[in-house]
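TEACHING EXERCISE
Course module: macromolecular assemblies
Task: Read the component lines below, then compare them to the predicted structure of the full complex.
Student: A.B.
Group: 4
Components provided:
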Amino acid sequence: MSSEIKNLIKIEFPSRPENISFARTCAAAFAAQLDCTLEEIEEVKLVISEAISNSIIHGYDNQPDGVIILEMKLLPEKKIELMIEDYGCGIADVNQAMEPRYSSIVNRMGLGFVFMKSFTEDLQVTSEVDRGTKVRMIKTFLPISKENDL
Amino acid sequence: MQIQLEVENDILMARIIGEIDLAVADGMKDLVDERLKKGKFRGLVLDLGGVSFIDSSGLGFILGRYNKITSQGGKMYIVRPRPSISRILEMSGIKRLIPIYASENELPKE
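Instructor-supplied answer key:
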């Protein structure tokens, strides 16, 4: 583990929707190592939920036997890096997939990447057709006011 | 996740408790749509007071039910969302489509 990385958790799980709740709870607990607000924790839960849902729905076409990897790194300066990787069908046009309201599936709102962009910095999506997709996000937590501290 | 359906004055009230994500959105859709099929409703109210988390799968559930009830000539309302849920409803644009009230008492009478 690099000296820049203060802590690291890596979990691997099958592409079952019931695992999304487990993954976002893990991410919330990991983020809670930092002095952060409940609102920031909710944002982490949301972006994790969106990225993993994308892997299940789009990457694996809702098949439950795909592999999803969630890796979280605690970095200096109140930052965490979140990485979600799958080995599914990949995205042919990443730029199109990241457009607001774009979804390849009817009745999806196409908001997953909108939330990821809104609540994190440095969102990077790398994908290769038939090889898989990797989403990497950095979340910086703001300093909490100490005015009310005794 | 729990969903409780009640009917009063031709309004279907769905009280939802828990987290709404991909794992539960389809099941909720089936339950509500099945009930909507069984009657002629002039409105659908989603009580989100017990909802602690929602993502775009949950928003898709809400938007889909909005499209369904309005295509049948009915109206849809959301009541009691927590601030964290209200924020997501606002970002998604759902707040511009569906009236949101802090309590059931504020719902339109007609």
